[in-house]
Design goal:
InterPro entries: BCAA_transport (IPR051010), Leu-bd (IPR028081), Peripla_BP_I (IPR028082)
Order of helices and strands: HEHEEHEHEEHEHEHEHEHEHHHEEEE
Helix content: 40-55%
Keywords: Signal
CATH superfamily of the largest domain: Response regulator
Signal peptide: 1-19
Radius of gyration: 25 Å
CATH architecture of the largest domain: 3-Layer(aba) Sandwich
Largest sheet: 7 strands, mixed
Strand content: 15-25%
Number of domains: 2
Pfam families: Peripla_BP_6
Shape: globular
Strand order of the largest sheet: 8-7-9-10-11-14-15
CATH class of the largest domain: Alpha Beta
Protein name: ABC-type branched-chain amino acid transport system, periplasmic component
Number of strands: 15
Structural class: alpha/beta
CATH topology of the largest domain: Rossmann fold
Amino acid sequence: MKKLTVCLLIVLLSCSALFAGGSEEKQTKEKEVVIGVFEPQTGENGGGGYQEVLGMRYANKVYPTVTINGETYKVRLVEADNKSDKTEAVTAAQSLISSGASVILGSYGSGVSIAAGDIFADNMVPAIGASCTNPQVTQGNDYYFRVCFLDPFQGTVMANYAWQEGAKKAAIITQLGDDYSSGLGNFFSKAYTALGGQVVSEQRFQTNTTDFKSILTNIKAADPEVIFAPSSIATAPLIIKQARELGITAKIMAGDTWENSSIIENAGASAEGVVLSTFFDGADPATAEAASFIKGFVPYLVENKQPEIIPAVSALGYDAYIVALKAIEKANSTEGKAIRDALTGVKVEGVTGDIVFDANGDAAKNMAFIKVVENGQFKFLKTVSVK
């Protein structure tokens, strides 16, 4: 009988220890906050989207935790591929909401950002765009912010550059149905004509077009001195190569999307002399955060089998992430509405400069970098400010 009693006591003590251990494990389980990554990793803008994602992943590696009410929370990234498509963007946005994301980063591509905007607002989850430059992304949406400059500014910068270089006639090529392309082309046109320049040809093409010789032939007949062609990474080398094959010697220019090494690889020698505007130059770090980022991100690019050239959108992706952390800490909450309210007052020293938001949720930036393709590389030319 005594042996039976002892055995029962041992079993009861073991069970007690097991349940106590389980309870303790539950109590000490690491807390976490989810940040959604809303980016194209496939489709027409998959290359640029992936570069932006790398910046966010690296930021998460550098800053893996955030403090909320004195407690440390692990930051977990949940990624959703919007596939460079407006319909898929809605599905991707909904999946991130379902994942419990407190704040969402992205997207590369203004069209998909605009398409998902109402979903974020309706669910009161703030989004922070990295490189989506079309004004409509944040207009009328209290839950969308962004860390980049806007297309009216970028279009003006490139128009000023063309005019200052002595170009009196310009042609414009834009993609139908693409908010970024059509918007930036329009802003360039307005700024250029206001300076006194003449737009001698405006050509538009459908998505998935691969043969541009017809519209380029029309442009050649108009004899412009510059061609402004804001378009996707996929179409850029086709436009560049086919223009040179037709004997067009005009300077070819574009916006930030063209700062991608794959364009040089695919266009080859035809890419020489192409000029573009962008957000960041790794050779001239503007802040202490930028210097630290450059030192650590280059090896990270190598780890991910990428060229050792820091894409501007990677820097913006990094900045979007650290802005999100700052807002979470300021809000002392994982609730979307509280984070959104905190975003209106954050100030962050980012890789691409100091970041504060205006009433529209746009970063107050007034400087762009102009680069040219020279000897198969993007070479810094100058910085341009517009007041």
